[in-house]
C-alpha cells in the first residue's frame, strides 16, 4: 500500500481505543440472567392490604450487603414486602446464587429494613430484618437471623429480645453506652388515623406509638447470647415521628455516637445528642437551622474532606416544572408561621445538605450544591464511586403511584365526597389502579471538590425505575464500589463499577477486626493523610434507606499511590497508626494491635474572636412587630415589613468614646448605648416617633456644631404609600447625648427607605446625604423615590432632580456609598439594590452622572444588599465588596436565563400584580404554585381549572400578550456576593467571593485587618428569614471571616478558628472602638439578640 505508515496506523488504533474507553459509562447495569440475581419486590393492592390499610404501602424494601461466610466475597440480601426476602451468595466474578431456602431466611409479612450485624460476637454476620405493614402485631414482629456458620441461619429475634412488633422501618446497631457491646436503635413509624400533616402539638413524652425505640444490650443471658432490653424512656428517646431514615455517627466529635432520625411528614427530624450517661437529648434546633419536610433516607459522611461529618437528607422535590406544579407541595406563609409558633422547626420540601461547620452548627447548602431536587427520593449514599478521593452521592427514587397529583386528589375527593366510608374506599382504590407512577431514573452526582456536585448523566445510572433501598460494596474485589438497588415491580439493579478499567485511580480498603463483642468495629474512626490532604470516615453500615452497606471501608485516592499516615481510633478509644501505606490493596487491621491513645494535648491558640456582649453591658434583643405584607401580596418573594434593625456608631455625648445606636421596629423605640470609661455601655431609649420603622441610620454633624446628630430613615411596609410615618427624622444633639427632633430640617421624604449615607459631595464644608428608597408599599417591585439632600447650614433641600434625576427612581435601593471611585478628588456615589445593577454615579463638580455603562463590568443586576470599600490590593485606589443574595437559592440563573419579575395589570383586573418567573430546562415558567397564583389573581381560575393545565403553562400562557407587552419587566442574573477591583481610569472588574460567602445573603461587611498582617480581611454577616415560605429561609451564614492576601484574594477561616457565630437574621454589622483601643465587632439580627465580638489577639 503506497504511503502506508505502520507507526501512524498503530497510533490511530490506540486513539480510537482510548475514545471508545472514554465513552464507556462508569457503571454497567448487569442483566439478572448474568448475575443470577432475579429478585423483584412485587407488590399489588388487595382488599386486605393496600394504601388505605397501610400508608407506606408503596415505600419499597431495602438491601443489605455483607460477607456471610467469610470467603472474602460480599453477599446480597433483599427485603420483600409482599414477597419473601432473598439471600444471594456471591460466587465470584459477579455471579450469585439464590440460597434463600437452604439458608432458612424465607420471610413472611411486610419486611422493610435490612441490617447486617455480628450480634453474638462469633465473627459471623447475622441479619436483622425489620417488619411493618400488617395490622396484626404478630406479623410485624422483627426477625433476627443468627448465622450458624454453614450458610444457614436460625431465626432468634424473640430469644434476643428484639422481636419488636412496632412498625419498624430500620434498625441500627451501635455501642451507645461504650460498654463494648452493640445496642439497637429501632426506627419506627405507624399507620396512624391522624392527619399526618395537620398542625397539632408534638407528642414528646413517649406516649405516641410512632416513637422510636432504643434497646440496650444486657450482655449474655442464660442461653449464652446477648439479650436486649427496651430502655427508650429512661434514655430520653421520647419524641414521636414517622421515621424513614436513621444514621448513627459522632456528629459533635466528642467521642460518643449520636443519632440522626429523618422523619416524614410534619414531624421534625431528630438529632439525639449522646449525654455520656446513657441518655440522649434532642438538640436538632441548636445544630440545624432547617430541615427537609418529607424526610426520607439519610446519610452522614465527610464529603468535603475537612474531617467533619456532613448530613444529607432526601425529600421529594422534582427537577422539572411540570412535576413541581402538579404535586401537592409547600405550605402557605400563614401555616408556616403557625408551625413555628407551635414549636416545630422550619422545614422545606427539598433535599437538604447540612455542612458541618465544626463549631456545633451546620449550614444547609443543598441548593448551592445542586442536589436539592431529585424527585420522590429514598436512599442517599455518600461514596467515592470514581476513586478520585472525594465522596460522590447516589440517590434512588421513584414511586409506584403518584398520590401527590393535585388533580387526582381533587377528583378523588369529589368522587367519594358523598359516599359511605366503605364504598368511598373501594372507589378510591379503583381510581388508584389507573393512577400514574413517578418512574424516573435514579440520580448520581459527581463531587466537584468545591462543596458542589454535578449530575453525572454519563455514568450510566439512567434507567427509569421505582427504586427504594440501595447499598454499595466492592462486589468483585476490583477496587471500586458497585451498587445494588431494590426496585418495586422490577428486577433489582446490580451495577458493576468500571472505574478501575476507565480511570486507573488508586484506592485503599480496610477490613476492620474489632473485639469480640463488636467484631465489625462499628464506630471506629479512620483518618488518612497524604500530600497535605486528609480523608475521614466513621465506620457504620446503616446508611441511606432501609439498607446496610458492605463492611469493608473504602477510600478512593486519585493519583496518590501511598498514604503517608493511616490512623484508626477504635470504638474503645485506643489508637493504631500505620505509615507509608501502599495503595491498591485491602488491609486487614485488628483492634488487638491498638494501643492506648496519647494524652490529649491542650489546644494551642485561641479563636480570633470571643463573644463579649454581656461583659460589655450590651444585652439587647430586637423585637419585630407582628405584620407581614405577604398576607395580602402572596406573590411577592419576601416580606418587606421586617427591615431592621439598623445601627450607627459615633461619639454621642462628647466624652471621646464611641457609642452605639440601634433602630427599632414599628411600635418599639430605638435605643442607644453610651460607652463608659471602663468599656461597658449604658442604655438609653429614643422613645420619640417609635411608631415608625427605623430602616437606616447615621450619626453625623448635620449643623457643624461639633457634635453628632442622628438621622433615622423610615421604612417598612406596614403603612400606606406616602404615609407620614415614612417621613425621615433628624434628631439634633445637645452635645451631651440628648436628642431633639428638628422637624423643620428635612423636606418631605415619604418613600419607604432602606439606607442613608453622608458626604460633602458639593465641597461646601458640610455633610450632604443620599437616602435610598426601598419599596412602594402595595406595588412591588415599582421603584420608589430616592433622594439627594443638600445640607444648607443644617437644613436639607431635596436636590435630586437637579443633581441627578436618574437617581430619583433608580430602583429598590438597599445600599449606597459615597466614594471617590476615579480618584479625581470629587466624591462619587455607588448605589445598588434589589433587581438592580451596581450603579456608578460620577461627580463632575455640578452633577452626578451615571457612568455604569463605561465601567466595563457588564451585567451585574442582582439582589444586592450591602457594600463596603477598602484598598484590598495595596494599589492605592479603592476597591469594593458587595453583598448579594448568594447562590444557595432555588434560582440558578445566567444572563441568558435570568430571574424575572413582571408587574402591572397582569390579569385584566386593573389591579397592580407581580409575577416572578424562572427558567427550568430552557423555558420561562411562573414561579408560584397554582394555589398561590389564584389567591392573588382569581380571574385565572377558569383558564387553569386543572393543575395539569397550569403545570404546562409558560409565562406567556399565563399573562395575555397585550397585558404582558405593557407590563414592567425586571431581570437579575448575578447573585454572587463579590469584590469589585478598581482597575483605574474608571474601569472595574468583578469576581465572586469564595463559595462560603454564597451560603446566604450578605447584609453586613466589615473590611478589617483581624490578624494584623497588614492586609485587609473581611467579616461578613447576613441571612434572610422573611422570604416567602415556598422559597424558604436563607439561614446558612453564621458570620464568615475571610483572610485577605493583600492581592484582592480571600480565603475562608473555619468557624471554629474564627470564633464568630452570627447565627440569626443579621441585618447590620458595625465596628466600634473601645476606650481601651480594642475594636468590637457588633452584629444586629432581626428578632434576635445583639452579638458582640472582641479580638483575642
Explained architecture:
With 1097 residues, this protein is mainly beta. The protein folds into 3 domains: 32-402 and 437-512, YVTN repeat-like/Quinoprotein amine dehydrogenase (Methylamine Dehydrogenase, Chain H); 609-893 and 974-1095, 7 Propeller (Methylamine Dehydrogenase, Chain H), CATH 2.130.10.10; 899-971, no CATH class. It is 10% helix and 36% strand. It has 18 helices and 72 strands. Strands 53, 54, 55, 56 and 57 form a 5-stranded antiparallel β-sheet that branches. A 4-stranded antiparallel β-sheet has the order 1-32-31-30, with no helix packed on it. A hairpin with a 5-residue loop joins strand 43 (670-675) and strand 44. The longest helix has 18 residues, at 6-23. It is globular and about 100 Å long. The chain starts with 5 loop residues before the first helix and ends with a strand.
Name of the CATH architecture of the largest domain: 7 Propeller
Rounded radius of gyration (Å): 32 Å
Unreliable stretches covering 5 or more consecutive residues = 13-21
Count, helices: 18
Helix content: 10-25%
Instruction: Name the shape in a single word.
Output: globular
Would you tell me which CATH topology of the largest domain applies? Answer: Methylamine Dehydrogenase, Chain H
> How many distinct beta strands?
72
N- to C-terminal separation? 80 Å
CATH superfamily of the largest domain: YVTN repeat-like/Quinoprotein amine dehydrogenase
**CATH class label of the largest domain:** Mainly Beta
What class would the helix/strand composition place it in? Answer: mainly beta
Overall domain count: 3
Sketch the major β-sheet: 5 strands, antiparallel
pLDDT averaged over residues? 95
Approximately what portion of the residues adopt beta-strand conformation? 35-45%
